[in-house]
Amino acid sequence: MAGIGNRAAILTLARIANYGLMLISPIILVHLLSVAQFGRYREFLLYASVMQSLALFSIDDSLLYFIPAHPASRWRMVRQTAGLTACSSLLAVAGLVVLDFATGGRMVGSLLVPICLYTLFIVNLSFWDWFWVATDRPALIFAYSSVRLAARVIVATVTAALTHDVRAIIWALIALEGVRLLAVAVVMMIVDRGAAEPPLEDPWREQLRFCVPSGTASVLAMLNRNLSSLVVAKALGAVALALYAIGRFGEPVVETLRNSVSAVVLPEMVRRDRDSRQASLALWKRATVVNAIVLFPVAVVVERFARPLVIAVFGRGYAEAALILQIYMVGMLRECFDFAPALRAINVTRPLVESNVASLVACGIMLAILVPLGGVAGAMTAFVIGMVVDAVWLGWSAMRHYGVSLGELIPWARMGGVTAAAAIAATVLVASDWTRMFGPGGLALGGVALGGTVYLAVFALLLLALRVPEAYDLIAWARRLVPTFTAASRKA
Q1: Rounded Cα distance, 301 and 305, in Å
Q2: CA–CA separation, 225 and 230 (whole Å)
Q3: Mind listing the pLDDT tens digit for each residue in 20-47?
Q4: Between vectors from CA 141 to CA 138 and to CA 147, what angle results, nearest 5°?
Q5: HSE of 343, CA atoms in CB hemisphere, 13 A
């Protein structure tokens, strides 16, 4: 578990680096652009993220399954993955062009050419993170993602500071991704060892059989995540989208953490499943408790301090986003229960499609009801309801395919301990007005930091008092973390 924890930690930082454009640049750009301009910028990123999911179609992350399954032919799998991604991205871009012309430019309008170029540049030859996870080389992930983060943030913020023009920022990012694609293509030609590896038996059919349901599920999941944003953009406008985006600001971090744990757990589950399905499921249970230990306290602290946090980081013009952020924190608790790797580990991917269809339908119905009633807050509520429907469907599917009851699937005793610790520790946040401890304005953030620190300390002590095993594992892992990162940095 220690090795898995180290890989998950490094991959989490790498994934956050990949999301750096959506995490760091908004904090700077909200002070360089008007609310409407920032909303237009987020609109571009929204359309680009939708196209990125369509173009990738879960082809890259299939390496997490196929490299452990075919360790002697890893570079042949990489070549094949790159070829499939190129075809998929071209089809996605062609589809967008056709739809935009067919609707008279109402799909994306003037953003059509930038979105198409950005999609082609960013998704092709983007398999490296998954390849390095599957081959257990986290130092390379960390180095690559850190450089990419720095370049994206510098390009976006410098362009914004010089021009205050959204279109200039977009084209600067496109140019950066084009340079990355060329550089990575050269590197791949140098390091590719596929010619010396044994050929695979009917590899295309095997990978397509895996990717079609998994990719369909990924696209549907993307629609679930972004349907509410698309509705806000089209129905309520750029300013509303800016507020909604700030309310969901922490989503990339949450997804990154959960997906990083899943990414390092999945290959190990595939290996363990060869010997014992129960051993594979036990690993998933431990990962679920770890997710809860990390995410539960974040949800509590943000619920308590949402408004001062939003005002301090983004300014008073975004104060209305605090309610959106609080609603999202309720949905974040669902992210602890990631049933997808449990199903993918036994090569069962159809429920991933079914759950996303159910979630998409539920979210769509609630959007139609709640957006006219509650505006942006209604959109976020509909999004959270869709998340819950998705979790319920996947949980039922995992029970059926593993042949276990709900009590055997979910580690209730340990999850109950984490929940009790989070709830009891919350009394320290209610008992004192932390935001007024150091004064008004920006100084309130100091009170938030102090209150959050006290809460986390009490939460950790309660976990130990309640003897949650994963808490002891995390402490032991944390003691080894600094040497691991030091070694990783030296290798990089």
Answers
A1: 6
A2: 10
A3: 555 667 788 888 888 889 899 889 988 9
A4: 140
A5: 26
Q: First vs last Cα of the chain: how many Å apart? A: 24
pLDDT, tens digit (0-9, with 9 covering 90-100), for 61-97: 888 788 887 788 888 888 889 999 999 999 999 999 9
Say how far apart CA 481 and CA 325 lie, in whole Å: 31
Read off the tokens for 85. Answer: 């991604």
Every domain of the chain and the residues it spans: 2-491
Other CB atoms within 10 Å distance of the CB of residue 26: 23
Residues 357-399 have pLDDT tens digits of 899 999 999 999 999 999 999 999 999 999 999 999 999 999 9
pLDDT of 180-222, one tens digit each?
A: 999 999 998 888 887 778 877 776 788 888 888 778 877 877 8
Indicate the burial class of 481 (C-beta count within 10 angstroms; 0-12, 13-18, 19 or more). Answer: middle
Of 379, 376, 392, the C-alpha closest to 337 is 392
Q: How far apart are CA 420 and CA 415, in angstroms?
A: 9
485 is written with which tokens?
């990162």
What pLDDT is stored for residue 336 in this prediction?
83
Q: How many residues does the chain have?
A: 492
What average pLDDT does the structure give for the chain?
83
Instruction: Give the per-residue pLDDT at 21.
Output: 54
Q: Is the pTM of this model over 0.70?
A: yes
Tokens, residue 234: 């089209």
Neighbour count for residue 185 (Cβ, 10 Å)? 12
Q: What is the pLDDT of residue 322?
A: 93
Residues in contact with 361: Cβ distance below 8 Å, sequence separation at least 6, in sequence order:
none
- Distance separating alpha carbons of residues 81 and 57, to the nearest angstrom: 11
Which band of pLDDT confidence, cut at 50, 70 and 90, is reported for residue 2? very low
